User: Fold this.
Amino acid sequence: MVVAMKRGWFLTWGPVVGYCLLIFFLSIQTTMIAPAGGDKVLHVFEYSVLGWLWARAARTTWFTWTRRGVLLSTIFFTGIYGASDEWHQLYVPGRFGTVSDVIADVCGGALGGISYLVWWWSNGK
Assistant:
């Protein structure tokens, strides 16, 4: 029973934790070059994946939550994680943190959360 619970937690929340670690690893790189078109698109994409993963895990774990509750928790989590990531970058040589990146992170998180909920709802779940 305990092993099944740990396995369930790992399958549900492991991707969220792993992806957060990937974002952190990318944030400590001192020589990141923004792609053509700017880094805001990259932030939106990066955090839309995190939003999708968070919404999936939240919906699986707290199945009584409404779609609105899942979406609000997704926006809150991705916003807090994005802000902490930008703050962290202030201490990485060659990097800097900006409020506009946090806004892009929140937009991406919301987009990911909405897309997960639309996918979940359209599959009759």
